[in-house]
Amino acid sequence: MSEHSKIEWTDATWNPIRGCTKISPGCAHCYAETFAERFRGVPGHPYERGFDLRTVPEKLADPLRWPRPRSVFVNSMSDLFHEALDDASIEAVVRVMRLADWHTYQVLTKRSERLQTLLTTKLRDAARLPHIWWGVSVENHRHGASRIRHLQDAPAAVRFLSVEPLLEDLGRLDLEGISWVIVGGESGHGARPLDPDWVRSIRDQCRAADVAFFFKQWGGVRKNRTGRELDGATHDQIPPRPPRPLPSLNDRRNLIAQLESTTPTSA
């Protein structure tokens, strides 16, 4: 989507896939769907087709074009492991992450079973790369517990949880093998309430387990007013990002040419 992002825990978003479908309570007030559907039918707009699932081959090489290293939220407007995507489409995105390894990629999914399957098979080599972080969404215990287990069973170098929107007290979390936990409340029209004690519980568990903790927002209809302080402090921990040199412009141009020569121009 953009070389720059307003999302507090990343630098940039990258959407070589757009669109998704709802699968659990955390999807009820999906910000991405709300945004995309505003532009359905607008000729020439990136979301002319609303939130319909599609690949966007012309965006695939974007990380190779950016002039300095970034933390990159992959498919902020979709889900890389959506069941309607074929394996080849997923592998094409991961190929770029492997080529442009001076960035740090944050991949987040609710389709944790497919993540586990591919990270233990076709994407096994990419799973072990320290510059690609693999995460699952956890909005409640019913859906989140199994997603966490799937993530833990995948051979990922860096695993993280996005506990947003947090919809209930999660109780005791299994943080074995987890490097990072992001917590946030729902925002926008119809936002469901967030109890501070739910957040404190996760914060304290992360402290005890030595897991990086990031509190993103209280949310609500006007999230700018509610802010992101918890007990008088902001919590901005992020795992260390592996330092990697940026290739020369000429080398990056060669990588782009190589990639585009093997990528379809439309989808």
TrEMBL record:
Residues 226-251 are annotated as: Disordered. It comes from the Bacteria. It holds the Pfam family DUF5131. This is Phage protein Gp37/Gp68. The lineage of its organism: Bacteria, Pseudomonadati, Planctomycetota, Planctomycetia, Isosphaerales.
